[in-house]
Peptide ABC transporter ATP-binding protein
Amino acid sequence: MTASDPQALIELIGLTKTLRGQKEPRPILTGVDLAVHAGDSVAILGRSGSGKSTLLSLIGLFDRADGGRYLLHGRDITRLPERKAAALRSAEFGFVFQRFFLLKHLTAAQNVAMALVNGQGWLPRRKRKAKVMAALEKVGVAHLAKHRPPRLSGGEQQRVAIARALVREPKVLLADEPTGALDTETGNLVVSTLYEATRQGCGLILVTHDWDHARRMNRVLRLTGGTLHEVGDDDRPVEPVANAEVTQEFPAGVGS
């Protein structure tokens, strides 16, 4: 078995998962090895049905692997009870999905604040407001704090969703097709926003079908045959593409 990496934020060693509930069980992950460090950015490519979202679900502690080992900060959490897994999920991870999952009757600031209520218990109002505004400022939408989601473009809603993921100061960001509902220009700005979080020491795992987004990460992996494989240097640029300015305004009229 592969030796563990003591410097990794998260490390997967030979992780396996079989999907059940159908006529025949289907092995979907057959031995995944992955290490993610502070400030690391990793893109995972793969065809639909290859297991990308299943892998993110395992990493985010929403599901449990059938075999292999999962280390978090060097600690084996492979068989962690659900109650403890939920606490770690809240403390260690931020999640961004293709759908924004914003509550339409709440403002952008209130949507972000929900993550603090769910993840950090009670905070004094002033401290909570400061953390929320800092998160919105970080992704360039602080001026939209009082707007409700129906008044925001798709890109603005996704950046609010990213702020919600960042407000708890997670160690690892997990992004599952976060640009799937956006146009190309807006998608590029959202990926820039995600990548910017790695400059503060956050690890980022981006699942995407888009090669242009994938190549902006420090590493590009492909999930095929149930395992992860490095994408060769011939298929990607040596250096990540320069990021767009995070505070740049999104084009008007981009809906969710």
About this structure: The longest helix spans residues 125-138. The chain has a mean pLDDT of 87.
